Amino acid sequence: MTDPAPNGRSLSLTSRLAIGLVALLLVGGVVLALAAFAYGRVAAREAFDRLLVGAANDIAESISISDGELVIDLPVSAFELLALAKDDRIAYQVRGVDGRVLTGYDDLPVPTRAQQPGPDEAFFDAGFKGEPARFLRLTRRFAERSLSGDVEVIVGQTLLARNELAYDITRNALVGLAMGGAAIIMLALLMVRSALRPLGDLAGTIAARDPQDLTPLDPRGPREIAVTANAINGFMRRLDQQFDAMRNLISDTAHQLRTPVAALRAQSDLALHEQNPERRNRLVERIHRRTVSLGRLLDQMLSRALVIHRLESARREIVDLRDIALDIVESGDHMLIAPGTEVRVEVGPEPVNVKADAISLTEAAKNLLGNALAHGRAPVTVGADLSNGKAMLWVADAGEGPSQAVLESLGERFLRSAASRGESAGLGLSIAGAVAEAFGGRLEWDAGAGGFRISIVLTASEDGR
């Protein structure tokens, strides 16, 4: 038998972590790329702005006054600085104190009032020959007898070199980021595989186990693996309990039924070959009694199997024991078990609440009632009441009750003597005792002159909690 193919939509933990890391790095890479590009633009602007400042200062220093006129001797060093941006166009202009263009381009833009942070120096962006450009306006003041006023020097260049430097800085940053991201992903995958190795070891341990081996796993290891191992151990413990219940049911059935079935077969064989009508009738009567007793035994064994199953899986709820007492009497099952036997109900006006499983309690009470009908004397009374903070569901009859041997063997799964006779009083008491213990209670009995009373004693639940 081959294992079913895994769901195609499911992903391993390693794949999920890898996808998460890649997505995180991609988002982080986009953010860092934008940050790197912004930093590159700022760095490129500052670098080339210094060239403009150097060139403008060189030109401004070359201006002098001769005979009351401005004389400009353009320095070669200014243009050498601007020529460092080989592919960019260069623009310059010198204005006299009267605003007249002394040299350079006549149509260069001038900064607006908002672009002039200071009186002496101002950077501004504008177009030049259809291309975006960066400009610097530098003011030099003269205070001579022959000439007084401000001379403006405007120097600019297009942005090709600036943009190229910004892109180059961004590319270098992205290359480093990509290499670092790849290294982080590889290291992260190695760490994830190393961290998940105990989980794989746990899976391998479980897969290599024998199907019948439900012993606890070793919970030692990382905390997360220990939690998983403890959860698996809890599940296997519950599974083992269910298997034990099934094995016990099969064992009990084989043990309890072997003797009465063999007796029925022997008596039926005798009746089949008996020629005397009177003896045949006695044998048929014995077979009938055995069959009725065997049916009662089977009912209680199935009841025990149901109770054991529900004790492991049923959810505890608030149950009023008065309702249990009323239900088992009103169901009328006692009329089929012991026709004509008087059965009474005795409950009070106050609730008798417990936290338990109603079906399990009902089965336990039915077994107590069945034992009273089969082995006690009428009248039989079913009741529920409170006594000293204890909730009691009880069955009483006018008889002496089970023998001391049966009471002392309470809790055993079966009685050999009962099985040999096809009886089941001990099994019924065992069911009731198991239910009482499962809900934190006990089974109590009292035999006196007034008859025999047996009670399931549980802790009362206050205010329905």
UniProtKB/TrEMBL annotation:
Enzyme Commission number, as recorded: 2.7.13.3
Gene Ontology molecular function: any one: phosphorelay sensor kinase activity
Catalytic activity entry: ATP + protein L-histidine = ADP + protein N-phospho-L-histidine
Domain HAMP, chain residue ranges per copy: 193-244
GO cellular component entries: plasma membrane
Localization, UniProt: Membrane
Domain of life: Bacteria
Keywords attached to this entry: Kinase, Membrane, Phosphoprotein, Transferase, Transmembrane, Transmembrane helix, Two-component regulatory system
Record Gene3D superfamilies: 1.10.287.130, Histidine kinase-like ATPase, C-terminal domain (3.30.565.10)
InterPro entries for this protein: 2CSK_N, HAMP_dom, HATPase_C_sf, HATPase_dom, His_kinase_dom, HisK_dim/P_dom, HisK_dim/P_sf, TCS_sensor_his_kinase
UniProt enzyme class: transferase
Annotated ranges, domain Histidine kinase: 252-462
Coiled coil, from the record: none
PROSITE patterns from the UniProt entry: HAMP, HIS_KIN
Entry annotated with the keyword Ion transport: no
Pfam families, A to Z: 2CSK_N, HATPase_c, HisKA
The UniProt record lists the keyword Phosphoprotein: yes
Transmembrane domains' residue ranges: 17-40, 172-192
Name the UniProt record assigns to this protein: histidine kinase
Source species of the chain: Ruegeria marisrubri
